[in-house]
Amino acid sequence: MARIALVTGGIGGIGTAICTRLAKDGCSVVANHHPSESDAAEEWKKARASEGFDIATIAADVSSFEDATRMITEISEQYGPVDVLVNCAGITRDKTFKKMEAAQWQAVINVNLNSVFNVTRPVWEGMLERGFGRIINISSVNGQRGQFGQANYSAAKAGMHGFTMALAQEGASKGVTVNTISPGYVETAMTLAMDDAVRNSIIGGIPMRRMAQPDEIAAAIAFLASDQAAYVTGANLPVNGGLFMH
């Protein structure tokens, strides 16, 4: 039986690489997207099919506990219980703190951090009962070192790893691992759209002198999702080209 893998924010740049890699590794993959992205998700699904990947898509607002629970119920009914959960959904609302409004703080905390509770909670008990589960939370180098203008994002991403370490202790004796990946800058449509001077300045500060490829992030996730990583839990795996060493 193929393992069921759910990737939140699955149709984004990094999410796409994760979905295709897990599918290559034999998982039956479901990519979550926001309800407002349904047209884009349909195009995305066709594009993946043209590459030979049969990846399901499902709409849900993961910042809502009720909608996330509904999504997990639908996946369980259609495909089976979720074995591998990758919490990848995220947004930015960057502003210096003196200009940051409450709505910008709350939006980022809700989508980037509260979603991790919202989606993990409905799959957790089933994983414990079945004696297998892989939960992988996609944080960020900026959750480790902070970033100017990102008090909201850095707080949410740091919070994800606190969640990882606590939950890892609850799942350890039951065969359920919980880990964090903290990518640095990744070459996606978003970073490629940056002003050249800004992008070159970022790359100049990375010891490897380049951004990560999405596939390099996906490879780290594939390892943590595998049977070979059964003894790895509560870890924060940095994939940042040496940008931050801890």
From TrEMBL:
GO MF annotation, one: acetoacetyl-CoA reductase activity
Keyword terms: Oxidoreductase
PROSITE patterns named among the record's database cross-references: ADH_SHORT
Assigned GO CC terms: cytoplasm
Organism of derivation: Thiorhodococcus mannitoliphagus
Protein name: Beta-ketoacyl-ACP reductase
Sequence ranges assigned to domain Ketoreductase in this UniProt record: 3-184
InterPro entries cross-referenced by the UniProt entry: Acetoacetyl-CoA_reductase, KR_dom, NAD(P)-bd_dom_sf, Sc_DH/Rdtase_CS, SDR, SDR_fam
A single GO BP: monocarboxylic acid metabolic process
Protein family according to the UniProt entry: Belongs to the short-chain dehydrogenases/reductases (SDR) family.
PANTHER family: 3-OXOACYL-(ACYL-CARRIER-PROTEIN) REDUCTASE, 3-OXOACYL-[ACYL-CARRIER-PROTEIN] REDUCTASE FABG
Pfam family, one: adh_short
